[in-house]
Structures are given as C-alpha cells and as structure tokens.
## 1
Amino acid sequence: MQRTEIKPLLHTRPEGQQVLVKGWVRTFRANRFIALNDGSCIHNLQVVVEFEQYDEAFLKRIATGAALAVKGRLVASQGAGQDVEVLADHIDILGDSDPAVYPLQPKKHSMQFLREKAHLRMRTQTFGAVFRLRHALAFAIHQYFHERGFFYMHTPIITGSDAEGAGEMFRVTTLDPINPPLTESGEVDWKQDFFGKETNLTVSGQLEAEAGAMSLSKVYTFAPTFRAENSNTTRHLAEFWMIEPEVAFADIHDNMDLAEDFLKYIIRYVLEHCPDDMAFLDRRIQQEEKNMKAELRRPMGLLDTLRFVLEHDFERITYTEAIRILRNSKPFKKGRFEFPVEWGKDLQSEHERYLVEKHYKKPVIVTGYPASFKAFYMRLNEPEEGAPGDTVAAMDILFPGIGEVVGGSQREERLDVLRAKMAAMKVPEEELWWYLELRKFGTAPHSGFGLGFERMMVFITGMGNIRDVIPFPRTPKNAEF
Ligand code: 4AD
Ligand code: MG
C-alpha cells in the first residue's frame, strides 16, 4: 500500500477509505488520540486508537517523538478542531522514542535550548513552519529571476580575492598549521599550498557575477557566503546565503527599482503560497507578546507588517539627507544614540532603525554614501550638493526590525577611476587583473545588489534571532552539527 502524506490527506474527502500514513507522534492523549505529524504541513493528523485492542506495554511506546506507520480508515472527524481523522486498524512502531530521555517534550522550550538540539528542532511546529517557508522563499527567488530572463550563475566558493575589501575571510589551506613550509626569508611559503597561492572562502560572488553580467546581461547568484566577523548579534552569521543579481546597462535607479520589485514579489509569494505557516507564525508572535510591556511589542502584527510593506513605496533618500534627519531627531538631541551621527561616519543599526521605524515608518533606501567607508568597486558620483565629501552610487535597503537587508551599488565602470580607487584603498591589482580587464574590453554601466537571505527570512517569519532561520547556524564559537 502507498503512503499518503498528511497535507493532501487533510484535503481528501473522507469516505472510510483505507489509507497508510507515516509520521512522528506529537502527542498521545487519553490512550486514544495520536497527533501525528510528517512535516508536510503545519497541521497534525488525528489518529484514533481503539486502546482495547492493544496491551499496555504497546500503548506506552506510542510516545512523543516515536515514528509510526498507521493503516486505517479515513473518516469525517467526530471531534472539533479537525475535519478528518484516521481510525487505526494497524499501528507499526518504526522507531521508539523513550520519553524519559527524548529532549522535546510537549511543552514550551526556550529558543536557546532548541538551538542546542538543532537536529531535532525541525520537528517542532515553529521550526517546521520556518523551514517550509525557507524553501518557499528560495523557490520564489529563483522563480522571480527566471521569469525575467536572468541566468542563475554559480560563482566560486573558494577564491583568492576579498570582494568586499573588509578582511573578514576564512582561510582555506592544506598546509600543516603546526609546521608550514617556509620561504628562505622565513615566511609561510604559500606557493606550496594546494592552489599555489593564498585562498579563502568567498565573502561575496559579486565580482565574478560582474563578469557574468558583462557577457549574459542579467545574472544572479544564490549561494553561501562566509564572513569571519566576530559579531555576536541576532543579525549576523558566519555562514549565510546571499542572492546577488547583477545587470548590465543598468544604473543605480534601475537597481533600486529592481530591488524593490523583487522584495515585494517574494513577500507576496509567501503570503499567497504559505498561508497556514504564516498564520501560525503570526499567532505565535501575538502569544509571545501577550505578557510584554507595550513598548516592547511590535508596532504591527507579522502579517500586517508584510502587507504594509507591499502597499507602500519604499522611501528613497540620500545619506546626506539621512544625516540631516538624524541630527534633527529627538534621540540625537537628547544624546540617546550610542554612536556619533556625523557626515563621513557609517550609519549604525540604531540610526537605521530610527529612520525606518520612527521617522518614515516604512522601508527606506539610502543612496549616495561617502566613498570613504564603502567598497572600492562602487561608482564615484558627481559632486553632490550639500555633501562635504565624495559620494558613491551605493544603496542600502533598510527594513523595520532588521535594519539593512540589501546592500548594492552601481559599479565603477571607468578603468582610470577604478584603478585610482583601488590604489587609494590598497586593493592589489595583481589579484584583480581580470576584474580590471572587464573595464578594458567593452566596459559598460552595470549595477547589482546583495540580499541577505537569512535577514529576509527573519523579516518574513518574525523570528527574533537569525540563528533560528537557518537549520544549522555557524556563529563565533559555534560550529556544532
Ligand atoms: O552589504 P554587503 O556586504 O554587500 C555585498 O556583499 C555586495 N557584494 C552585494 C552586491 O552588491 N552584490 O552584504 C549584502 C547583504 C547585507 O545587506 C545583509 O543583508 C547580508 O548580506 N549580510 C549578512 N547576513 C547575515 N550575516 C552576516 N554576517 C551578513 N553580512 C551581510
Ligand atoms: Mg552592507
């Protein structure tokens, strides 16, 4: 007999037909009602057990976490809370789960506890919903670009360059760390390493994606990226997934239009395609906030926040305007910002959140950042009125509750300007000779951006910590599993 998954079964007309279902026990109530879940959807299937048919020892083995195969009849449910249920004729215990030691009990566990049980946490309602959504979001992203004629490009994971120039890289080597081969002058001899040079895990696929765009016009990457920044926050991972579209003949305005349209599309997609999981997460937050002080609660529910983003244009402002707004703000005047607000200094999370959550109350795209603290590849702007220094055609998209979800720019396509910039920022030309050749042969304006996949997941699921939207998070001092 063929197994039926629970999701389709719940939408099947119950006519007493024989079915075979398999899944894990969530709860077993009154020696009679099994809540069975197979992960196909948020809902459990109710299995009704004629306990007179089984001995006590067998019934004891139907415990939370056990894997079962149940043959029975699909009938309309007598009880409230479900439309159909299965009257069990035969129960097979595929895998026992000793309730004395099984970590997941039918009660509320803390997020920290569940992180330590990451191999089991996907069996909870919350994490089941989160990881089904993660799939849907990834699928929506591919669909968006595919429908618009972009080509999915696989950029290297191991590279010799630092695309962001921030020096936050994990080294890749096969040399013996205790006794590496040395040159005559006593330095590590990287020539003897596997690739014959120093290599690291990529921080971004952008530079290679630019080569793709300068041939195929429209490409995107969707790949893991790695950053050895020692940031122990709810928004940083050492290994995260990034989506990086890159478009030839597009300027910074085209780039903003693309990013806004793309973000709205993927939000709309999950609202339309994952209503049950989204409704569950929405209720979860309401319950969590019930006992919180008003000022700690979200200004809007999860679903309302997502709909709000869909219905409003993102605010577009320059960095220079952002600084003016911040310096005129109450928290600035009352000295409540921890970090300085000064033209030439990067915006910190507290500033971004003020702009988005207090001032505009909607997503904001900030452009025209000072050249001094942005990456070398960003295009130098014409002198900007009111700006005391050079600015670049950068754009960061800031979301409520998250801060930066997208970072992007128009790229410097002028060879001489790019070389001067690299020299000033000490980016070695020998490493990026090929990148410079893209400007020597058929250069053209082009733009792109990077969306942090897990930051977007945090926004969509309303989870409070980025470690809870990736199955097995990598963070400082943590690479378990
Ligand atoms: O702003 P970033 O560093 O931009 C780039 O890497 C460019 N090469 C993108 C491009 O133009 N093609 O990173 C892009 C996004 C950020 O906006 C943020 O959402 C996410 O990646 N991000 C992280 N997400 C989780 N953990 C981290 N440590 C992250 N660092 C960046
Ligand atoms: Mg950034």
## 2
Amino acid sequence: MTIHSNIFNQLKAYQLLKKLTQNPFDLTGSGSLTSERIQRLQCRTGNFRLLYATQRLDEDVLNGLQQLADETSAVEQFVMMKKGAVMNRINGYDSENRQVLHTACRDVFSDSPAEPSAARQALDELDKLKIFLDDLDQEKLRTPQGKPFTDMIQVGIGGSDLGPRALYHGLAVFQKEGRKVHFISNVDPDDAAGVLRGLDLSTTLVNVVSKSGTTLETLTNEKLVQAAYKKAGLDPSLFFVAVTGQGSPMDNPERYLRSFYMYDYIGGRYSATSMVGGVMLGFALGFDNFFEILKGANAIDLAVEEKDIRKNIPLLLALLGIWNHNFLGCETLAVLPYSQALIRFPAHLQQCDMESNGKSISRQGESLSYQSGPVIWGEPGTNGQHAFYQLIHQGTTVVPVEFIGFRSSQYQQDIEIKETSSQEKLIANLLAQSLALASGQKHENPNKRFLGNRPNSVLMAECLTPRSMGELLAIYEAKIVLQGFVWNINSFDQEGVQLGKLLANRLLDHFSGMRQDKEYDGSSQDEAGWAMLQAAGMVEGLKTKS
Ligand code: G6Q
C-alpha cells in the first residue's frame, strides 16, 4: 500500500469547512439547544453514546466533516493498518519502517483476524499468561518460603507505564482479593523508595516492562529494586518477571521467573492490551477480566470500520476535534472524566495523543502548513470544577471539553441526601457543566457574564467495567490514529523525545567524569551543558561531596 499523501489544507472538504467557520452554530441563542437537537446529535458505538449537541456545528458542518473523512480515506487507512500495512514511516527518509498492529492484541475472538500472524502471536502470549496466572492461583508458583504472592511492582515508563496504570486504577474495584499492584516509573530515586517502603518484598513479584530493554529509567530502577531484594536476602530471579521485545537485552528468560513478549509492531503508547498491560492486569484482576478488556477494545476496532461519521464515535470524536482545533482555532483539549477511577486516564491520553500527533512534518517529510495535534490535559470532575473550570467558563481562551461519565457507580455504595444519590449529583454536575459551557449566561454585571459557545461533548456509558474500559481505551486510540490519517502525519513514531535523552546522557558523562577526576572540567567539549550544571549548583555539589 502506498501511504496516503493528501495535503490537509488543500482538500476540497477543508475549503468547504473553512467557509463554514464564518458563521459557526451559536449555542447561546434562545432556542439553540432544543430537545430535538439534543436527541438528534447523539452517536452510539458499543456501550457508549456520545452527546454532541453542545458542539458549534450544524448539518452543513457535519456533512463537511464527513467529506473530510471520505476524502482522506480515514476509515480505509484504519482497516489497512489492522491488516498489517506498514504505516509507521516517513517516505523517502530514514525512519521507523513498521507495521502498526496493537489491534492484533485483541483480535483474538474471530476465526479470521485482520492480520493472522500477529493475532497468533497475541494468542500465544495469552496462553503463557493464562498458565502463569493459573500457577499463581493454584499456588503452584509460590514464594521461596511457600507463601502466595500478594503484590506486584510494575517497573516501566512511558507506554510501559501510563496506559497499564490508567487501566489498573480504572478497574481497581475488580481487583482480586489479596492482590495489589504498585508502580515505579520515574528515575527519581524517591519514586522507588516511596513504593518499596513498607512493602513485604518476600511476597512481592516485580514485573519489569521494557519493549526495547534499553530504557535508562527502567534499567536503573530494575537494578535499584534488585538491590533491595538482595539486601533483604532474596534472590531476584525468583521474583522478577519480564515483558520485553524479542531479541532485546532483556530477552533472557534465565534471569526471570517468567518472560513475556510484546512485538515490534506494537507502539509503546498503544501497548496496554499487549502483555505490557496484560501481565499486571491479569495478576490484579484475573485472566477473565483482562479478557473482557480485550473484548471491549476489539468491539471498537471492528466498529471503527463504519464510514458514516454519525454512527462511529471514534471517527466523530476525531473530526469534532479537528473542527475545533483546525477550524475554530482552539489550541487545547480538556478530557474531564466524571469518574474517580479514571484518575490516570488523562495522563495516558496526554502521552497517547501528544506523542502520536505532536508532529510538524507530513508522512512525505514536508513541513506542515496547518496545525497537527492539540495540547491535551485533564483531571477528574467534580474536583476540577473547584479548580480550573473558572478559566474554561470565563477565561480568554476557549478550551473544548470531552466529558466522560457513567450512569452507575462502580462500588454501588451510595447514599441519598435530599432525595438524590451521590452518583446523581455527579452526573447532574457533568451535564450541567456541558450546558453551561455551551449556553453561557447573559448578565448586566460583566463579572457574572458567561460568553458560552464553549464547545464540548459528553461520552456516557452505564458503568466502568473491564468491557467498557477496553472500549474507552480503544475509542481514544482510534480517535488519535484517525486524526493522524486526516492530517497525513505519522502518529506512530516519537523522534521528538530522542534529543533530550541524548543530552541527558551527555550531562551524565560529566557526572562520571567528576567522580573519576576531581579536576575534571567539561566546559571545553560542552560549554552549554557544563554551564547549566554549574548554574544548577551540581558541579559544586558533587565536588564537595566527593
Ligand atoms: C511510546 C514511547 C515511549 C516508550 C517508553 C518506554 O510510544 O515509545 O513512551 O513506551 O520510552 O520504552 P520501553 O518500553 O522500550 O522501555
């Protein structure tokens, strides 16, 4: 397949939509948010419905967005991706050159998966995981003292941390009794120290997750945790499990109790449904719950094949995002879940979206003459309401919002006060915010005036379960990928994080230089780096310590 080479702002649909920005739908007028509009502008996919009457659009804009999706073959490109096309590359330049097959991790329910060999590999890893989890459940796998394992520390960073961690928090209510998970990601020694403090290492497994097996933070933390085990008189190889790429420096089963693979064609930030999330989530929630996550994600991957934007939530979300960002000029997007369990979900989206679509060249290596991905941020509501919502309502910048909510709570432990439950209070707040942002408020006192026309939509489902969590994850993964197709960028590489890593290593060389030679002076080979170290007081600090 040849990679699509459309230039976004030269498309016919772009010109059409550009004209429509002259007079976007006014949500503040009396009679704007009619019941007919609210009923009509809804979309259903899987267990979710998306309410988008509170976006600044009408049928003409929707038709234009449909044309944009069609003209860029967004859905067709998604299907090609699932079938194993090499989508991760920049044509004509040195770049990654890979398939993009995170969808294969959950394409394990049909006899004719989109890419059979990747689905086979996913099934093989799932079989290994099932055996591992059964061995733990049946206590065939126990601690050297014969006790069951109760805890797991996941050591990993970036994609090997954020998605899995978001899912773990999202589904903590489904945790198996007597099992708990902890995470170490930052190379800040206080991250590890805080987790290790008070943990009984003799009943704790350590899951070291690194696709490359070379990530500085993860390898450092692995060594740090190993040292803690040795200090406690425990042999790390009887406690440490690994998830890594085939052939990576960590691909050495002898060093680990069990080893699992994730494959080259699964990008880190899209890897939560591979063994990167699977081992830890299986340990915490049990195999069946992990399988439910996969089912939910797979259902969305299939639903994305629908070309009608009015019937495909990920595609519609992608296009609404493009309307707000590229046409209405909104620079950021807030994702605000009204669910405490989704506390880490915005952090996962920050990575998944911004690392994917924070690009400024096309897939043909040309500079973009239009905006690519927006800044993504968020926090669970209603806490945010008492914090940053002021700016969203009355600030000088317009921040589109994607609200996420659930009709029922997870724990089902609620109380009625003044004839309403806490869950009802939560959802009433969510819906009220959506309306208030859209309609605004007229007032003779300027301080009490709300301009309104702040675009937002509401993503709702019944309850946050393993199935709907899997759906939510895949909805956003697909949204991000589809936007990348429309913008004609490579959403699957991350060159932008390399330069900082390179410079950090150069600075670290100065530290070891100083340790070896008190008279060491790095200013001649690296003026700026050395000066930064001096200015930060690090040179002085190290010399006085040594
Ligand atoms: C994600 C990125 C990045 C990666 C981490 C960890 O898409 O590639 O966040 O996940 O740098 O990499 P390893 O899993 O190789 O340690």
